[in-house]
Amino acid sequence: MQVADDDKALAEFVYHEARLIDEKRFDEWYALFADDGRYWMPLTRGQPEDAGHTSLFDEDKLLLKIRIERLRNPNSYSQAQPSWCQHILQQPAVQSRAPENGIAVLRTPFLYIEYQQDKQELYAGVAWHHLNVSREGIFIAMKKIELLNCDAALPSLQLFL
Amino acid sequence: MPEYRHNAANIRALVRDDAVHRDVYIDPQLFELEMERLWQSAWIYVGHDSQVPNAGDFYATVIARQPLLMLRGSDGAVRVLLNRCAHKGAKIVGARAGNCGKLLRCSYHGWTYALDGSLRTVPVKSGYAGTRFQESEAARGLASAGDVATYRGFVFARMSRLGMGFEEYFGGALSSIDNLADRSPVGRLEVAGAPLRYMHDSNWKMFVENLNDTMHPMVAHESSAGTARDLWRDEPPEAPKPMVIEQFLPFVSNYDFFDKMGVKIYDNGHSYTGVNFSIHSRYSAIPEYAALMEAAYGAERAQAILAESRHNTVYYPSLTVKGAIQTIRVVRPIAVDRTLIESFTLRLVGAPPALLERSATYNRVINAPTSVVGHDDLYCYRAIQEGLAASGNEWVNLQRNYSDGERQHLTGTHNGTSEVSMRGQFRAWVAAMAAEANA
Hints:
The structure holds two protein chains of two kinds. In chain A, about 20% of the residues lie in helices and about 40% in strands. Chain A is α+β, with helices and mostly antiparallel strands. Chain A has a single domain (about 5-145), classed as Nuclear Transport Factor 2, Chain: A (Roll). The mean pLDDT of chain A is about 95. The radius of gyration of chain B is 23 Å and the shape is globular. The longest helix of chain B is centred in the C-terminal third of the chain and has 16 residues, at about 370-385. Chain B is of the alpha+beta class. The chains are: A alpha+beta, B alpha+beta. Chains A and B meet through strand 2 and helix 3 of A and strand 13, helix 9, helix 10, helix 14 and helix 15 of B.
């Protein structure tokens, strides 16, 4: 497959990724991650990457799969009244390209709104997409989410930023 | 609504041997009284002394809605001071944690205090000449908690001046903190990083009761842990389990497992599940850790320490401890239907990094505001909070495995699925809430 890997195509990928979450097209979303892909939301600013630190999310594909399947489980009582979410993205900016390993890094400031049962929560932050770009396509090596209020007392956050 | 503040009999009528009235969870008047009575007379967890390693280090928190500071003095002692300037009442420290140097200085009029809370300087003190200032409350400096005790690094405070001593209050329940600290080859713990802070829109007691409620995991967590189990089902039995699978699977163990786990009850509302084994018993061994423990304690003692695998220990009403996985959860009631739960990861000093990684993973997967397990639990607490508004039945049933013999003797080991831990908590609750001194 021929992949358009210019900056515009990379930005389109980021928009598309957010849209799949908002529309709950989770199988398609899951397929965007590389086999060793990571979905990470640190608990503190400047948090090191190693596993000795607690995070809000630090999901490999297995954990993502558990979350996705759980959302469909009829006994997921916390979703008896389903949550919905909406991403509002600033234009993704390509921060770096490394042709030798095909990794592109994009920075995308965002607003994220999660809604359930008459309550609407507003979050803000910056998403960093580390993308594997090759002839096979574009895949997420890591999506890192720097949440503005990562150290705040938070209510249940049930979908994906 | 009955009157409670001046009527101890009405409070006593809320708690039967095997049931409690819904008002204990939903009446704002009772919440006020809990903050004034139970949370004043009980020993409340403040923080861990590893959070304030150096002189001038402080950690600010709120207990029974009062702003407090845990502060390391220049003499090395950890004190618990009220975070309130003696002058006009401004909080003396605004950050959650930090170092204040050699003095605490108020942001408003610049009064300064030594690290023991005593008043050091007041700008243009001549303004107080001839005012009997030395007799004022302000001259006494920062107020302190009624009493403070540090046990294996865990700092507790009792807000009221009078009350039960620390050792008497917790009694044998302190063995869970011992087991947690003993799991370090050098017997020391450190708070590792920031806490997960999860706001619960439910009464604090629902969380505390749930920690030793062993009849809910296979129901409430079927959607999360059960999904993990189902996704792993097709793997061959010899396939090494990823850490998260190992942590999820025991949540959907059967009733018999949780019943045989056992629950131990102490006076004053404390208890722990997992007397015989727990959901943490079958984690993979971490190479070299056992050897370090044996070198530190000798083979027999090391084995005894690691063989303990307690599930949750409730230090009523403010702290729950998971020794086997080195996480603690701190309960901060905010309103009758609002409770902050802060979950800390602890590092076993001298142990291999793999233990911290396991604790940090468990804390995230189970206790974070993003945790699917947390979502299950909070949904249920919230369902109770709203459901109790329904009329027709004003009682919450706590009858499982009740027997009249409990009136004389509640403490000791019971079957794991008994609701005896909740009955014990309400016995402590009513004793503090309807004490003669309040009548």
